[in-house]
Design a protein that fits this description.
The protein has 193 residues and is an alpha/beta fold. The chain has five helices and seven strands.
Length: 193
Amino acid sequence: MENLKKTLISIWQNDIKEKFEDGKLVYERQLQAEIYHLLENNLNKNGKDYDIWVEPVIYLDGTGIHKTKPDLVITRGEDIIGVVELKFKPWEEVDYKGDLDKLIEFKKISTTDKKIWLGIKPISSDWKDQNKDDNFDFYNLKENLLTSFIVFAHPVSHAIGDFAIYKEISNFLLLYGYIENESNLIFDHQEFS
């Protein structure tokens, strides 16, 4: 988890900041794509140890995350080691409650050693043949899961101004940013144990 945490912080404070300063980061989807690309390259420098899943639909009946789509899920081997939600609205207040609720639910469920379906081995164009348990790849949701919220918003946004809201989430990383003025862009982080 520490490698993932350090990589996310470095990507945020260096690469993403530079892209935004250069005017090459305008939309939330661009931010998501950049973070995916940079995670894939940085985490897998020495081989293909990590997979980054973009907006996978999570099917987990009887939980608060059934049929949700986190922005990014990071796996290493058969373990889910990170879940990331992001918001990018530099000139607006952001609505982040749903994202936080989702991350809190992931943390709560991670204490139960649940398995989550993420991948599928394609064998047939007929869903009846395809839809069999042995064609699906399940991943372990572990208790030491890192959850992270990445937010770039207006400086008065509660999402970046009220850190108390994040303290209830263990092993949580907040990456936040805002435009202070024309010569000062803030890209910072806060860790919660």
